[in-house]
Specification:
By secondary structure, the chain is α+β, with helices and mostly antiparallel strands. It has 14 helices and 19 strands. It folds into 2 domains: 110-225, Uridine Diphospho-n-acetylenolpyruvylglucosamine Reductase, domain 3, CATH 3.30.465; 228-452, Alpha-Beta Plaits (2-Layer Sandwich). The chain has helices at residues 2-31, 65-82, 132-140, 157-163, 200-206, 241-250, 295-302, 308-324, 332-336, 364-376, 418-437, 452-458, 462-472, 481-486; strands at residues 43-44, 53-54, 57-60, 86-89, 105-108, 115-118, 123-127, 144-146, 179-185, 191-195, 215-225, 228-236, 255-262, 273-281, 329-331, 350-360, 381-390, 405-415, 441-442. It has an 8-stranded antiparallel beta sheet with strand order 15-12-14-13-17-18-16-19, sandwiched between helices. β6 (115-118) and β7 (123-127) form a beta hairpin. α1 crosses α7 (295-302) and α10 packs antiparallel against α11. It starts with a helix and ends with a helix.
Length: 487
């Protein structure tokens, strides 16, 4: 009898911990739509896959500075003559038509990606089209790292400045805080140097200005030291998150990077959290790995779409990996070098959409309590909520962090149907209401679903921003769907 029980136990173990998970991952892979969605010639789109737009032309810029200025001035003259709008694109990770205008000209900046480090001042001069992953690779040779950037390295430097992105670096403001200056081609074809002391108003308009004031060319960035970082993770109730954060992270000078996650399984919905942080250590800095194979991680993540089992599997596997990775040492550059492909959606019938809400530290719990019933009753599939601390900053007009806040980064999977689009708009406005009621705000690079009055409540400087747009670009040469909707 005992031997039989052992065999049954072993079989159950195999089924629960090996066969079922493997079968689920294989099923996810099998059911993925192999079709690639090509953007037709003469059209453009963005990461939402919901903004296919016919344009006059898409112009890829040259690499060298002298040629790019000549070309860009020519494009501006062409647009003025033809009475066309000009939009600026990089990696196109915005989701609300921020890089396009119907029948306009799209300037693709990705080729302008030069970089040079002044080792005496630790200042990186970089072309606005460069991707952060290229900057990390370059800086790694000097023992340096990017000071502030988002969680994925697939975005462009100019794009990050234009949305004033934030990262998971401890106790730091948005990316604008690491920008010393940049050169800007304005609507008149003039090159302006913009910093906190020179053309300071333009500096504050361009950072978080969504490409509406000119074309960012060369950027001077502060850099940080690359470090060996030791990993730690805590599983806790969200009610205890802020206290744990203050004790383990805010009051610990060794912490360099930090993020949190909220559980989105039905059984423990927003009732479990993980706090993950990385402490500086004197261990040898591991070599930067440039070609990490993330396919298994990607499939585990994709397997959570429309699947309670998949969501539980992912949460349990992440918790297990957090435990087994405790005290593991990484390089800072390796941790920052994650590519967005690790969560890539290969189902052409749906798209993944981001929301971000910025909530004052004091209202952390109130916001979770407010969004729990909203998310539970929604018809949109919630895949993930990451938590990041963002320090207050006043570098830009459209400022989402007037004080220290926690950013709640939500990822949804939306089917490409009119019903789901309507439901997403309803959900977005309910979540924005919850954020505003908690003294917070929301992030502007995503779908244009937020009602105009709410946008101005969240961003009280919006009317000033749009008035200054007409001061610096009276003919509205630079435009996009975001500006067209909210101005």
């Amino acid at each position: 009898m005992r031997k039989k029980l052992l065999w049954i136990t072993a079989l159950l173990f195999l089924l629960i911990f090996i066969i079922f998970p493997v079968a689920h991952v294989l099923k996810t892979k099998w059911h993925e739509n192999k079709e690639t969605q090509e953007v037709p010639e003469g059209f453009t789109n963005d990461a939402s896959q919901l903004n296919l737009t016919k344009v006059d032309s898409i112009v890829q810029v040259p690499e060298d500075k002298s040629s790019i200025i000549i070309q860009l001035k020519s494009i501006l003259q062409y647009a003025k003559t033809k009475k066309l709008k000009v939009s600026i694109a990089g990696a196109r990770h915005t989701m609300g038509g921020h890089t396009m205008y119907p029948n306009g000209v799209v300037i693709d900046m990705l080729s302008y990606n030069h970089m040079e480090l002044d080792t005496s001042t630790d200042i990186l001069t970089i072309g606005s089209g460069a991707l952060w992953k290229d900057a990390l690779k370059y800086l790694d040779k000097f023992g340096k790292s990017v000071a502030i950037m988002q969680a994925f390295s697939s975005f462009s430097v100019g794009g990050s400045i234009s949305v004033n992105g934030h990262g998971w670096q401890k106790d730091l403001p948005p990316v604008s805080a690491s920008v010393l200056s940049f050169s800007l081609l304005n609507p008149d074809g003039e090159i302006l140097n913009c910093s906190r002391t020179e053309n300071s108003e333009v500096f504050r308009l361009v950072t978080g200005g969504y490409g509406l004031f000119g074309i960012i060319l060369d950027v001077k960035l502060k850099v940080a030291d690359n470090r060996a970082l030791r990993y730690h993770s805590i599983i806790l109730h969200p009610d205890d998150y802020v206290n744990a954060y203050m004790k383990q992270v805010a009051n610990n000078p060794k912490v360099n990077l930090v993020f949190g996650r909220l559980c989105v399984t039905t059984k423990h919905f927003l009732e479990e959290a993980s706090l993950n942080y990385f402490e500086e250590t004197n261990a040898e800095i591991p070599e930067l790995k440039l070609n990490n194979n993330n396919e298994l991680k990607r499939l585990i993540f994709r397997g959570s779409v429309d699947s309670e089992y998949g969501k539980r599997l992912r949460w349990e596997l992440e918790s297990f990996m957090n435990n087994t990775s405790e005290n593991k040492v990484y390089s800072r550059n390796e941790l920052l070098n994650d590519d967005v492909s690790m969560i890539e959606n290969r189902d052409s019938s749906s798209t993944d959409l981001l929301h971000e809400y910025f909530i004052p530290v004091r209202n952390f719990k109130a916001f979770i309590d407010a969004i729990k019933p909203i998310l539970k009753n929604s018809g949109i599939d919630l895949l993930n909520i990451t938590i990041r601390g963002v320090n207050g900053n006043s570098d830009c007009f459209l400022n989402y962090a007037e004080e220290d806040v926690f950013g709640f980064v939500m990822l949804f999977n939306q089917k490409k149907t009119s019903e789901q689009e309507t439901e997403m708009k309803r959900l977005t406005n309910l979540l924005v209401d919850a954020a505003l009621n908690c003294g917070g705000t929301y992030y502007l690079p995503y779908r244009l679903h937020v009602e105009k009055d709410k946008m101005r409540r969240a961003y009280p400087n919006a009317d000033t921003f749009f008035r200054l747009k007409l001061k610096y670009d009276p003919d509205e040469i630079f435009s996009n769907e975001f500006y067209k909707y909210y101005k």
